Amino acid sequence: QVQLVESGGGLVQAGGSLRLSCTASGRTFSSYGLGWFRQAPGKEREFVATISRSGGGTYYADSVKGRFTISRNNAKNTMYLQMNSLKPEDTAVYYCALILGSIYTTKPADFSFWGQGTQVTVSS
């Protein structure tokens, strides 16, 4: 089993920044790829970004490319999502997830473990 806990969400004005964190326990953190998804009210869960075990490989949704940066610190068992130039349409609950296979996927079903989510609200 693995436990994932997100933090860092909040309310921010459009154009602002937030950094989300995801802390993991229960498995060897550096052995697995990780990702971020988001879900807005009434919408399906949406892929945001993934990162490989070492952090050397990353994959982004087109909607966040150039604005968001995913990273990880294996010594701290923590993954991050730096979000800049935030837009109202970025408003959602953000989830971190762990994947046992390739990080080059956008499907939530490919991820095995999930956190509880953290709310991000961007006001216009």
Describe this structure in words.
With 124 residues, this protein is mainly β. Strands 2, 4, 5, 6, 9, 10 and 11 form a 7-stranded mixed sheet that branches. The chain has a 4-stranded antiparallel sheet with strand order 1-3-8-7, with no helix packed on it. It starts with a strand and ends with a strand. The mean pLDDT is 95.
Question: What's the short version?
Answer:
This protein has 124 residues and is mainly β.
* Helix proportion range: under 10%
Strand and helix order? EEEEEEEEEEE
Low-confidence segments, ≥5 residues, pLDDT <50? none
- Our count of helices gives 0
Largest sheet at a glance?
Answer: 7 strands, mixed
Structural class: mainly beta
Kindly report how far apart the N and C termini lie: 40 Å
Mean pLDDT, to the nearest integer, reads: 95
The tally of beta strands, per DSSP, is 11
> Rg, please?
13 Å
Shape verdict:
globular
- The share of residues in extended strands comes to over 45%
Blueprint of the fold:
Blueprint: E1 3-7, E2 10-13, E3 18-25, E4 33-39, E5 46-51, E6 58-60, E7 68-73, E8 78-83, E9 92-99, E10 111-114, E11 118-123
Keywords:
four-stranded antiparallel sheet, 0% helix, seven-stranded mixed sheet, mainly beta, 124 residues
